[in-house]
Write a structure and sequence with these properties.
The protein has 23 helices and 13 strands. A seven-stranded parallel sheet has the order 3-4-2-5-6-1-7, sandwiched between helices. The longest helix is centred in the last third of the chain and has 25 residues. 44% of the residues are buried. Strand 10, helix 12 and strand 11 form a beta-alpha-beta unit. It is 49% helix and 12% strand. The protein is an alpha/beta fold. The two termini are 42 Å apart. The structure holds adenosine-5'-triphosphate (ATP), magnesium ion and zinc ion.
């Protein structure tokens, strides 16, 4: 084992440009290279892909990666090529000549990583090729799709156990970010993973600040997003919508407000979607408005903000969505806009029960879990860890200190220096705004905003019109006439002092 570890470290040095491996990467790589199966549940953006890329380099054997989304296959194949691994994907978006090249390269032993979908593995011709030339490692990415207990069940994932029988004792890596214990057990059982090493890593989110805001109307939400988007450091941004109709509302509102918008949903053709995702991949100032068709695995490093335009269909879906933000380790925000009526929307969308001979996860109860998360007054990171990793959570129970609820606790305690800094920054910015506005409007400053109002606004720091309207001690005329500008000042100055 020591020899394997030394090889892993040496390879990491040569392909990782000065970065070092995470523990879960070391453990998973070592187990796979010694021929053991691995179940890896580790946070979004924690470098799970490297757990097969590095062994693919070291073992020099061909690796088969099963992946649920075309965009994901292409993205990962591209990333593997940049690590010097000859890689290609096989899916319906690939033309016949390229498919032929891919299969021939695999058969000739020239391809190091082949990405394909579980459905494609039902194709008898492909199965025959793989039987003739076995992979040296099989990876099931986004493995939670195997489970009817999860929210992203894909029937073809279940037949993978049949496919795996063709490969004898080839080690298997099943990996995902979002699998609660029932889903973890289902993955191991359904894939018949013999004696797997389970590497389970709870969420940490050091650079991601989670929050939720109750909204009264669609207009409230649109305005909230616009106000966030015009802040200096909040782009690129992804807005996740539950329906295509919501995507259309958000896209057209933001475009009308002269913001750069890219749309991505299942109603678009495959080539339009792939163009949209390629354009966004390069973008620095754009907003991607997408359904959950986008959320799994996508690795764009510099997304600064993720907004959920309404309750997600489940906490799994929510976790996958927020996992797109801040993958470069720099500060990022994830904001969930919600109302109780969202439950009705999700209820109406819930499909028929699955005919799998056992109870599927109820979509409605999954949505209710999302509502509980939105309305919780406890640390949001802690809430998610209690849901996904109850055993570890019992032991650790850590709080993030960085979500809206942690901030409220700190504000109540009144002893957080960063909060004081934010109070001072917002108060100063509001005074500045009052000075300029009173000059422009030729009105006495106190008529626009009294000192007392500045004090209240700087303490409560409302972020949406609804919260401003509800704030005691603020004259109605103030929120009516200057609400939008005031909210903008508050948001901008909160953004400059992330905690
Ligand atoms: N040890 C490391 N240190 C720093 N960055 C790393 C490390 N390992 C991988 N990365 C980088 O982290 C980014 C995310 O990696 P990857 O796409 O594998 O995440 P993931 O765990 O598969 O996330 P998801 O669950 O969202 O699919 C990549 O850009 C990768 O280069
Ligand atoms: Mg991934
Ligand atoms: Zn917290």
């Amino acid at each position: 084992m020591n020899e394997i570890n030394a090889k892993i470290e040496a390879m990491a040095q040569s392909i990782m440009a000065g970065r070092s491996l995470f523990d879960h990467q070391r453990q998973a790589c070592a187990a796979l290279l010694s021929g053991r199966n691995v179940l890896l549940v580790a946070p979004m953006g924690s470098g799970k892909s490297l757990c097969y890329q590095l062994p693919a380099h070291l073992s020099k054997k061909p690796t088969l990666v099963v992946s649920p989304l075309i965009a994901l296959m292409d993205d990962q194949a591209e990333k593997s090529r940049t690590l010097g691994l000859c890689s290609a994907s096989l899916h319906s978006g690939i033309n016949a000549a390229k498919q032929w090249w891919t299969i021939s390269s695999w058969m000739a032993g020239k391809l190091r990583i082949l990405y394909t979908s579980p459905e494609r593995l039902n194709d008898e011709r492909l199965r025959k090729c793989l039987r003739e030339r076995h992979p040296g490692l099989v990876v099931i990415d986004e493995a939670h799709c195997i489970s009817t207990w999860g929210s992203r069940f894909r029937p073809a994932y279940r037949s993978l156990s049949e496919v795996l029988k063709d490969f004898g004792k080839t080690p298997i890596l099943a990996m995902t970010a979002s699998a609660k214990p029932a889903v973890q057990a289902d993955i191991v059982q359904t894939l018949n993973l013999h004696d797997p090493l389970s590497v389970i890593v709870p969420f940490t989110f050091a650079n991601l600040s989670l929050s939720a805001a109750l909204t009264r109307s669609v207009d409230d939400r649109l305005e909230f997003i616009r106000n966030l988007a015009v802040c200096e450091d909040r782009l690129p941004m992804v807005v996740f919508c539950v329906t295509k109709k919501q995507c259309d509302w958000v896209s057209s509102y933001l475009s009308q407000n002269r913001l750069r918008v890219i749309t991505y949903h299942a109603g678009m053709t495959m080539s339009d979607r792939s163009n949209a995702s390629a354009v966004f991949q390069q973008a620095t100032r754009s907003i991607l408005v997408a359904t959950s068709a986008y959320e799994m695995g996508v690795d764009k490093s510099n997304i600064r903000t993720v907004v959920h335009f309404g309750l997600p269909s489940s906490l799994e879906s929510y976790a996958q969505g927020i996992g797109r933000a801040g993958r470069d380790g720099t500060d990022a925000k994830a904001v969930l806009l919600y109302s109780e009526q969202d439950l009705d929307v999700l209820d109406a969308m819930a499909g028929p029960e699955l005919d799998e001979g056992r109870l599927p996860c109820s979509k409605t109860s999954a949505a209710k879990e999302g509502y509980d998360f939105a309305t919780t007054k406890t640390c949001r990171l802690s809430f998610l860890n209690a849901y996904f990793f109850p055993a570890t959570h019992q032991r650790i129970r850590s709080v993030c200190g960085n979500c809206d609820n942690c901030h409220s606790c700190q504000r109540l305690a009144g002893s957080n220096p960063t909060q004081d800094l934010m109070f001072t920054a917002v108060a100063a910015a509001l005074k500045n705004w009052r000075r300029t506005a009173s000059r422009n409007l030729q009105q006495a400053a106190f008529r626009l905003l009294t000192d007392q109002e500045i004090l209240r606004l700087s303490t409560a720091r409302p972020q949406i019109a609804h919260d401003l309207d509800q704030l005691a001690g603020i004259r109605r005329s103030v929120s009516k006439n200057y609400g939008r500008e005031i909210l903008e000042v508050i948001r901008k100055n909160m953004g400059h002092h992330p905690t």
